[in-house]
Specification:
5-stranded parallel beta sheet; 4 helices; Rossmann fold; alpha/beta; binds flavin mononucleotide; 5 strands
């Protein structure tokens, strides 16, 4: 099974979740602005995460979502962190759906910085899909 983990994180909270997810599924989490972030080879599963900033997604993630191709991503699973609102989950899901990529209904969410327990929960969540 081909799996990728991508995220955008300004202050490290979403990165911490991404790293826990990636470790659980045996890949490396890449920031969407990393040179190798583009999905060139088809993946069965893309875990993709971001946070909410002033009620919206960061531009880096918005732009990245537009680069995704349904031919290259069979299914996506969303994770997110924010202070209060889970709107970021909907915004990421909407971006994926606009690209025609099937999105798992269930998502993983943490309020701000994940605790060690929440990192374990993120890992358990990710393993369910492989
Ligand atoms: C500039 C800025 C704007 C934010 N705006 C919101 C917001 O509108 N709603 C919200 O629930 N959280 C907001 N937050 C909180 C972040 O979404 C939250 O801390 C998140 O975990 C940050 O993720 P990151 O560490 O991966 O960047 C904001 C944080 C920052 C730094």
């Amino acid at each position: 099974m081909n799996i990728a983990v991508r995220y955008y994180s300004l202050t490290g909270n979403t990165k911490a979740v991404a790293d826990a997810v990636a470790e659980a599924v045996g890949v490396k989490a890449l920031s969407v602005d990393a040179p190798q972030a583009e999905i060139k080879e088809s993946v069965d599963l893309l875990f993709i995460g971001g946070a909410l900033y002033a009620y919206g997604l960061d531009k880096h993630l918005k732009v990245y979502l537009k680069t995704l191709k349904k031919e290259k991503v069979k299914k996506a699973v969303v994770f997110s962190t924010s202070w209060l609102s889970k709107h970021s989950v909907d915004l990421i899901k909407n971006g994926l759906k606009e690209a025609g990529i099937p999105v798992e209904e269930e998502f993983f969410y943490v309020k701000n910085k994940p605790s060690d327990e929440q990192k374990k929960q993120a890992a358990d969540f990710a393993r369910k899909f492989i």
